[in-house]
Amino acid sequence: MRNKFDEQLARLNNMLTQMGAMIEKAITLAIQALVQQDEAMAKQAIAFDNDIDQMEKEIEALCLRLLLQQHPVARDLRVISAALKMITDMERIGDQAADIAEITLCLVGVTYIKTLDHILQMATATAKMVTDSIDAYVNMDLNIALQVIKDDDEVDKLFDTVKFELIELIQSDKTNGEQAIDLMMITKYFERIGDHASNIAEWVAFSITGKHAKENLELGVRN
């Protein structure tokens, strides 16, 4: 019985890894589409959302079977519960990558009102947070999970930087307003992706320690 349960847990890890790879690809395509103003890449990022939604349903079904049929206890129960929470955040990341790509379609062929340096720094940071949060789950690595949670502060700082830059552009020339709003929405979606990656990392930490975010961060400081 335990061997079968372990096989199903391994399958759960594999499916989460696959879903993680999907959202990483969606984010990468959304970033590249934004930089290159590439319509085809933007549409690819949007198309990934359906695959991500389907994977969420399949993982949810597996988790529920494990809970109902195997009656897991202690750490196994935390791992499965964390997976159920994680896939909600992962699905939202897929949605937000698609949202970024949708806005990018409106920007194809236009001249950007500013360089994308800080937006790209933010995009790169959030993409890394997503990758690291999934790795933390697969490897049950508390240190990586805690680092992802801390990294969210840097993403928030970059968001504030971009926001002030865009406000200044609108104040200097009101014709910048429409594109500035589009870029602000893109930036906000990246900020939300960072939040969801942080949520995933918090659930990973909980699955390992049985403690919630604040307690885990205090544990990380002590260590």
Characterise this structure.
The protein is mostly helical and 223 residues long. It contains 7 helices and no strands.
List the topology elements.
Layout: H1 2-36, H2 39-70, H3 74-107, H4 117-139, H5 142-172, H6 177-209, H7 213-222
Helix pairs in contact: 1-2, 1-3, 1-4, 2-3, 3-6, 4-5, 4-6, 5-6
Summarize the structure.
The chain is mostly helical and 223 residues long.
Number of strands: 0
Q: Number of helix segments?
A: 7
Residue share in β-strands: under 5%
SSE order: HHHHHHH
Q: How is the CATH topology named? A: Methane Monooxygenase Hydroxylase, Chain G, domain 1
CATH homologous superfamily (4th level) name:
Phosphate transport system protein phou homolog 2, domain 2
Helix coverage percent of residues? over 70%
The end-to-end distance, rounded to whole angstroms, is 37 Å
Principal-axis shape: elongated
Provide the domain count. 1
* Main sheet: strands, sense, barrel: none
Report the radius of gyration as a whole number of Å: 19 Å
Mean pLDDT: 91
The CATH C-level class name? Mainly Alpha
CATH architecture assignment: Up-down Bundle
Uncertain parts: none
Class per helix and strand makeup: mainly alpha
